[in-house]
Amino acid sequence: MLFQLGAGAFQLCNKVNLYESVNVLLILIIWGITFFRFVPLHFNLDGNRYHRESLRKLVVLNRSRTILWSVVFVLSFLKYIDII
């Protein structure tokens, strides 16, 4: 994730356009979801404490990150093959 953020920021600094802006925005949203939603849920599971609700929330939230990462991948692929 750190490399992805760095690469996205580097690309945005070198060439400001809609693709680069959307790419960095999606990466920042993924980071936000990770740090503000996933980290607290993982702390709930720390120390061998089992919380069924925390596990359920992790699974549901991971779908949103998976979708966003898929969108970033598709956009990157389309950019690579020079469609966008």
Summarize the structure.
This protein has 84 residues and is mostly helical. It is 83% helix and 0% strand. It has helices spanning 2-14, 18-45, 52-80.
What does this 3D model show about the protein?
This protein has 84 residues and is mainly alpha-helical. It has 3 helices and no strands. It has helices at 2-14, 18-45, 52-80. Helix 1 runs antiparallel to helix 2 (18-45) and helix 2 runs antiparallel to helix 3. The longest helix is centred in the C-terminal third of the chain and has 29 residues, at 52-80. The model has no long low-confidence stretch (mean pLDDT 87).
Average pLDDT rating: 87
Structural class designation: mainly alpha
- Tell me the number of helical segments per DSSP (H or I, 4 or more residues long): 3
| Silhouette | elongated
Number of strands: 0
